[in-house]
Design brief:
This protein is α+β, with helices and mostly antiparallel strands and 154 residues long. Helix content is 40%, strand content 12%. The chain is extended and about 65 Å long. The model has no long low-confidence stretch (mean pLDDT 84). This is B box-type domain-containing protein.
Length: 154
């Protein structure tokens, strides 16, 4: 189910352009021109842009605020607990942890990591298997409809 969402900034300026990226910080879909502008503005350079089709499919929900401190944004990653945390949590809950880094620092190189490659390969294999199962199921339905006598399973 592919659909094209319209660019937020362009829509607000009474223009029409299809979004190609989604800024998870601004919560706004962006067209190619607005992505270029978004990246050029210094205050927005640390914003996270994802492909629009990922956001359009709503495959996952990105949480940006702390569950313990809803008014605080998640800024750090604790390697000891493998969790995201806000400034308050980093001082209170993770005070003794020695592996707390800003999210952007801890995420460096993730796109080329072995773990991401392994997960991607596994997901592709699962997708292929599910597609094969769907095809087999459709064939089975088609052939079972052609049987002259009912099929009983004992």
């Amino acid at each position: 189910m592919a659909f094209s969402q319209m660019c937020g900034p362009c829509t607000r300026m009474d223009k029409s352009a299809s979004a190609v990226k989604f800024c998870t910080d601004c919560e706004d879909p962006l067209c190619a021109d607005c992505v270029t502008i978004h990246k050029a503005i210094k205050a927005l350079t640390l914003h996270h842009l994802i492909d629009e089709e990922v956001q359009a499919g709503k495959a996952f929900n990105i949480r940006r605020t702390c569950s313990d401190h809803p008014d605080m944004s998640l800024e750090f990653y604790c390697s000891n607990h493998e969790s995201l945390c806000c400034r308050t949590c980093s001082v209170n809950t993770h005070r003794t942890c020695d592996k707390i880094l800003p999210i952007d620092v801890s995420a460096r190189g993730i796109k080329t990591s072995v773990m991401l490659n392994d997960v991607t390969t596994d997901l592709k294999a699962l997708l292929k298997t599910s597609e094969q199962l769907e095809e087999e199921r459709a064939k089975t339905r088609k052939t079972s409809g052609k049987l002259k006598r009912p099929l009983y399973i004992l």
